[in-house]
Amino acid sequence: MKFIDYLRVPYILEAESIEAAPGSWVSRVSYPELPNCVEQAATIEDAIDRLERRRIQTIVHMLRRGTPPRIPRPPLASSQPYWLIAHYGLEDGLLDLLDQEDHAIEAASKTRKVM
Predict the structure, then answer these.
(1) What phi and psi, each to the nearest 5 degrees, are found at residue 78?
(2) Contact 70/56 with Cβ under 8 angstroms?
(3) How many CB atoms lie within 10 A of CB 104?
(4) Which single residue of 64, 66, 82, 100 has CA 20 to 30 Å from 107?
(5) How far is CA 112 from the centre of its chain?
(6) 26, HSE (Cβ side, Cα atoms, 13 Å)
């Protein structure tokens, strides 16, 4: 499976408002199907924005370690994650990975560690 396909997987998003301190509420969002993919912020919009960046970083990290993320639902062919990568300023590090297979990403990561 290619990196871009992992970015197209529609993971379940959970959102809740929690009381961070007496009378102070924040929005907490997560992708429970991905490890440690949780963020919180004062607004739901900011929390989701942070979560999307974390989702991309989590998927890259997992692929580089050789532990591909779960695929609970098939990737959405209509999803175009290019704009997300640009939005977060990750073009330099990730555009070259989009069409690479997961095993190639892991192998390249191991090669860099050896050098």
Answers:
(1) -80, -10
(2) no
(3) 14
(4) 82
(5) 22
(6) 13
Please report which helix (H) or strand (E) contains residue 15, including its range. strand 14-21
Q: Where are the domains of the chain?
A: 3-114
Torsion of CA 50, 53, 54, 57, to 10 degrees: -160
Structure tokens given for 72:
């609970």
Element (H, E) at 29: strand 24-30
Per-residue pLDDT tens, the chain, 115 aa: give them. Answer: 999 999 999 999 999 999 999 999 999 999 999 999 999 999 999 999 999 999 999 999 999 999 999 999 999 999 989 888 998 888 887 888 899 999 999 998 887 654 3
**If DSSP codes are grouped into helix, strand and coil, which group holds residue 98?**
coil
- Give this prediction's pTM: 0.88
Q: How far apart are CA 34 and CA 12, in angstroms?
A: 10
Domain 3-114 has CATH 3.30.160.250: yes
